[in-house]
Each structure stands twice: as structure tokens, then as C-alpha cells.
Amino acid sequence: MTTWTHTYSGKVRDLYASEQHPGVVLMVASDRVSAFDHVLEPGIPGKGALLTQLSLWWFEQLAGIPNHLVAGDIPDEFAGRAMLAKTLDMYPVECVVRGYLSGSGWLEYQQSQSVCGVALPAGLKDGDRLPEPIYTPAWKAPMGEHDENISFERTVELVGPEVAAALRDRSLEVFARASAIAESKGLILADTKFEFGADPETGELTLADEVLTSDSSRYWDAALYGTGDRTASFDKQIVRNWLSAHWDKTGIPPVLPPEIVEQTAARYRELIDRLTA
Ligand SMILES: Nc1ncnc2c1ncn2[C@@H]1O[C@H](COP(=O)(O)OP(=O)(O)OP(=O)(O)O)[C@@H](O)[C@H]1O
Ligand SMILES: [Mg+2]
After folding, report:
1. Residues 168-225: tens digit of each pLDDT
2. What are the tens digits of pLDDT across the range 225-265?
3. Rounded-to-integer distance, Cα 39 and Cα 33, Å
């Protein structure tokens, strides 16, 4: 019997370590949902399992890209919503890639015609496809602080020129592969965020965290996008929209009503069904 000790809880995942498995982290995905940097009540039933299955599926599709998964037994109480990973030296950079203009990228573009220092053509509209995918890193702020968009040059200062370039190139490569797969399933991968770490033994750049889930990515239905509807995403946009309409973003957020919880759970299920079908 392996004894796992809780070491850390992020907004969504709980991490465990065991003396019997040095260098390994058990990452358990909860049903917690966060928006605007707040963890909301209640959770979305089944979300932790769905996001774990989706991450595992994507890791499998991305054969050849070194990732943090290791084989081993997962305790029954966490079955279906946990993965075992190599404990990496994580880089403090959130590797964001955008193929389309949306969300905070759209807001920034309206101010400056650029996103995170990447200049873009004039006249783009919300939801437009970019001429090519762009890498727009963010600094991974310590717990409790907001992540901050940074320039590529700033990532060079943080991790050095070789690693900064490798993070960018690998992120763009994985995004291109994932976009093609999503497209073949009638889905658009609008943007996503990767996290990488260094293998403590070999130093190898390794894809970590969750990958290409609806928590870390924005997916759209390609058919609806073609008709001009750019609002039907498969992420927690339903939650964000409801919160924006019912909360002024100060103090404790209101409890999500059952229909919002159910609609969000249904969208998460639909994404995994369509991708893995
Ligand atoms: N292989 C790995 N080794 C070590 N840490 C990892 C690995 N993969 C992911 N992580 C870290 O595990 C945590 C996952 O927790 P979660 O996603 O809930 O946190 P978060 O709310 O996104 O961020 P925060 O770190 O601010 O709590 C993240 O801090 C992530 O960087
Ligand atoms: Mg996270």
C-alpha cells in the first residue's frame, strides 16, 4: 500500500507525494471550477474526471513530445480523475498560443493592434483567425497573484535564451498538431496554454500539467463558427457569462444556479465526446 501525502492544492488540482515514490507527483483533478481567479460554488459534477481523461487522450495523440506521465497505480479513491507524473522543475512561464483573436487578446488588440507585444494586421474582428498562430507567454504568478502577460524578451530574462526559444517553438509545434486534430473533428482550437518543466535527471524539456482541456483551452464548433456564431465555446464561458451578469467582481462570487452547473457539465461532456469519437 502506498501512502500519499497531500502537498499542494491549486485552484483545481490537489497534489500528493509519497516517500515510496520519490520524484513522482499524484495530480488529482477536483470538480472545482474557477473563473476570474475565484473558485466558485458548487463544483461541476464529473469535471475532474472529464478533464483528466481529456488530458490523457491528448498526451497519447502527441506521441513524440516528451511528457510528464509515468506508469503506476492510482489509489481507488482517485481513480479516473488522477494522473501520476514526474515531478519536474517547472518553468514560471505559461505558454499561451493563440490561433484566433478572443478574450483578453481581443481586448488588448483593440487598444494597441498587438497582443503581448506581437504586432497584428489592422481591421481584425473579435473571433477572427490570425494570419498564423502567435505565442503570447504569461508569467506564472505565485499563488494568490494574477498571472501577467509578458513579452518574449521577458521570458528570456526569466529562463535564458535557449529555454525561452524552446518553450516557444515547442508550444507552437504542439498547437499546430492539436489544431489539425481538432479541425478533423469539426472543432476549432482558438487558443490554449501549456506548462513545461525540466526533467530533474536529464534536463529535458517536458510537457507537464493538463493539456488541451476545456480549462486550459478555448474550443469552438467549426460549423457554428462558419455561420458567424463565435460564442458557442466548450469551456466555462457559460459560467463567465452568468457571473458577469450577476456579480460586480468584488467580494465573494454568488453560488452558481443548478441550470448553469448542468449546462457547463454538458458542454464539457460534449467536447470530450466529439474529440475522442
Ligand atoms: N510534472 C509536474 N511537476 C510539478 N508540478 C507540476 C507538474 N505539472 C503541473 N504542475 C503544477 O501543479 C499545479 C496544478 O494545480 P492547479 O492547476 O490547480 O493550479 P493553478 O490554480 O492553475 O495554479 P497555482 O499554481 O497558482 O495554484 C500547478 O501549479 C502546476 O504548475
Ligand atoms: Mg493550473
Report:
1. 999 999 999 999 999 999 999 999 999 999 999 999 999 999 999 999 999 999 999 9
2. 988 877 678 888 899 999 999 999 999 999 999 999 999 99
3. 6
Enter the C-alpha cell of residue 189. Answer: 482550437
All residues at 6 or more sequence positions from 142 whose CB lies less than 8 Å from its CB, including other chains:
none
CA distance 45 to 60: 25
For 149, phi then psi, to 5°, come to -65, 135
Residues 56 and 27: beta-carbon distance below 8 Å:
no
Atom of ligand 1 nearest to the CA of 206: 1
DSSP state letters, 78-101: GTTSEEEEE--EE-SEEEEEEEE-
pLDDT digits (tens, 9 = 90+) for 67-106: 999 999 999 999 999 999 999 999 999 999 999 999 889 9
DSSP 147: P
Is the CB of 51 within 6 Å of ligand 1?
no
> Within the chain, where are the H helices?
47-61, 103-112, 152-159, 161-184, 222-226, 237-246, 258-276
Report whether residue 88 contacts ligand 1, using a CB cutoff of 6 Å: yes
Nearest CA to ligand 1 atom 8: 209
Give the global pTM: 0.95
Burial degree of 123 (CB within 10 A; 0-12, 13-18, 19+): exposed
Instruction: Label the pairing between strands 196-198 and 93-100.
Output: unpaired
Q: Phi, psi at residue 115, to the nearest 5°?
A: -130, 120
